[in-house]
Amino acid sequence: MTDILTVLDPTADVAAAVAGPLVEPPASLAGLTIGVLDNGKSNSDQFLARLGDRLAQRGATVADRIRKPGVGSLAPEEQVARLVEGSDLVVTGVGDCAGCCSCSVQDAIAIERRGVPAVLICTSEMVTTGRIAATAAGVPEYPFVVVDHPVASCTDEELDGRVDRALAQILERIPG
Amino acid sequence: MQLTSTPAQVSSDDVQEFFLQRGWSDGLPVVPPTPDRVAAFVAAVGRRPGDVLARIPEQAREVTVEKLAINAVMAGARAEYMDVLVAAVVAMGRPRYNLHSTTVSGATAPLLIVSGPVVQRIALNSRFSLFGPGHHANATIGRAIRLLQQNVCGGRPGVVDKATFGHPGKYSYCIAEDAAASPWEPVHADRGVDPAGSAVTVYAGEAPIMARNDWSSDAGPVLDTIADAMLPSHFTGGGCTVVVGPLHAAAMARAGLSRADVAEELFRRARRTLTSLRRAGRLSGPVGADEDTVERTVVPRPEDILVLVAGGHLYGYSAVVPAWIGGHESMAVTVPLDLATAPDLEGAVADLTHPGAGGLPASPTPGEASS
């Protein structure tokens, strides 16, 4: 015999969605003070240093570089506060694993919720992970800068290619 | 009782497919979580459905009693297991356990170690075929935690959980301590919980490695065998869990070894030289000068080895459960069972200094010692 059952959704509740960007991106890279939040993944320091050099060539100044104490955890409040206090724009990543990508997305959104625009860099294999993290945080359309997976085991040459691709996407959002 | 989860109407013929297609099951049939069943599970711990048991800031999510109850019903658990499940989730929510990263990366499942009088009360298996099937409480408590991880904690396989291999314990990974076979106080006694009470310890564990020594009844060779089985660990710091089989435990008891002595002995024996680690590709970089004399221990300190007694008593086996790859970023956490029904649960969830935080301070770095 067929019965009609009422069953309850076992999944997590999702925060109410915010439409559009949290903070408008700056009009130009020129003159910006940039803070870098390195999530600590292998090669993320190399990637972010090279990206910082490219941004500096466009007139920005990388004023602060911070490495998170744990790749699989959120940035501590004091690190977020320092970046928000001292930066016009925060660049963070590289989310190239499921654990660290979710955390870096939350870090970027937390920084934007405090009024400072952020650039989140993740790899192509982590876009779904990042999208789920952003949706859970109530910003389903939060923009990502996406580079080829992976970054952790890249050669220098591969790394430079990914930096170029990241820069191009940043320039689409913030003109040089 | 006011439940807030979204309801759906589905025919009993279609209900299994309904859960499978949404990615809400582990691939096995589930018990449909009807509001009546879920309400009974919530009521079993005397809590409100919306009580928060754990927060996962890395995912902007929280785990409520209602979501736990839904997943526990689906797993086929009984309402009387809810206090164990609540304690397990509170433990998993402690920052030092690192629920987010251990759920979505590496090759671990939360190993639940239940200890104290509750083991008898709900007939948890602590003996033959310890990690294996056949016992309702072990099977369904572990499965409830698994479904909860998948549905609430980001552990959707292949979607956010990108583990390369995972392991079979991700279906269910729940064991109990055998108090009768143990020469020592309950495992929770050293971890901030009343020895006379019950507790749940959670530990992000890889698949168990069998340490067989059936030929010696002396503690020394048995400890050597167990220490050798610890060597596949990742050498990234953190902890290691050793389930001492009853015959091995008896050998240790005859030698007059306390639990702390056993941990100390295993710590002393479970180590490799840097040369050996590099030659095996376990550490990057070329072999350096004098590295033959520098040893790295499996864990930074003896107290990072969690020792308990369980398993069948006919053969000389112990089991080593290596820790998650992230080392000290996830450590075992013990929570007293009575926290599940305590009036100050919300405070305990928020208060990291509560005795429920359990265990030892996180150990910082991989250990090194000169030989």
Could you characterize what this model shows?
The complex is a heterodimer of chains A (176) and B (371). With 176 residues, chain A is α/β, with parallel strands linked by helices. Chain A has a single domain, classed as Toll/interleukin-1 receptor homology (TIR) domain (Rossmann fold, 3-Layer(aba) Sandwich), CATH 3.40.50.10140. Chain A contains five helices and six strands; from the N terminus they run ββαβαβαβαβα. Chain A has helices at residues 44-57, 77-86, 98-113, 127-136, 156-173; strands spanning 4-8, 33-38, 61-67, 89-95, 118-123, 145-147. Chain A has a five-stranded parallel sheet with strand order 3-2-4-5-6, sandwiched between helices. The radius of gyration of chain A is 17 Å and the shape is globular. Chain A starts with a strand and ends with a helix. The model of chain A has no long low-confidence stretch (mean pLDDT 93). Chain B has 371 residues and is α+β, with helices and mostly antiparallel strands. Chain B has one domain. Helix content of chain B is 30%, strand content 18%. Chain B is built from twelve helices and 14 strands. In chain B, the strands form four sheets. Chain B has a four-stranded mixed sheet with strand order 5-4-6-13. A four-stranded mixed sheet of chain B has the order 7-12-8-11. Chain B has a three-stranded antiparallel sheet with strand order 9-10-14. In chain B, β2 (52-56) and β3 (61-64) form a beta hairpin. In chain B, α2 (35-44) crosses α3 (65-75). The longest helix of chain B has 17 residues, at 136-152. Chain B is globular, with a radius of gyration of 21 Å. β1 of chain A pairs antiparallel with β1 of chain B, so a sheet runs across the interface.
Please report the distance between the alpha carbons of the first and last residues of chain B: 63 Å
Strand percentage of chain A, roughly? 15-25%
The largest chain-to-chain contact, stated as pair and per-chain residue counts, equals: A-B, 32 and 48 residues
Determine the mean pLDDT of chain A: 93
Integer-rounded radius of gyration of chain A: 17 Å
Mean pLDDT of chain B: 92
Let me know the largest β-sheet of chain A.
5 strands, parallel
Count of spatially separate domains of chain B = 1
> Secondary-structure element sequence of chain B?
EHHEEHHHEHHEEEHEHHEHEEEEHE
| CATH topology name of chain A | Rossmann fold
**CATH class placement of chain A:** Alpha Beta
Percentage beta strand of chain B: 15-25%
- Which ranges of chain A are low-confidence, i.e. pLDDT below 50, for 5 or more consecutive residues? none
CA-CA gap between termini of chain A: 68 Å
Q: Describe the global form of chain A.
A: globular
User: Nearest-angstrom radius of gyration of chain B?
Assistant: 21 Å
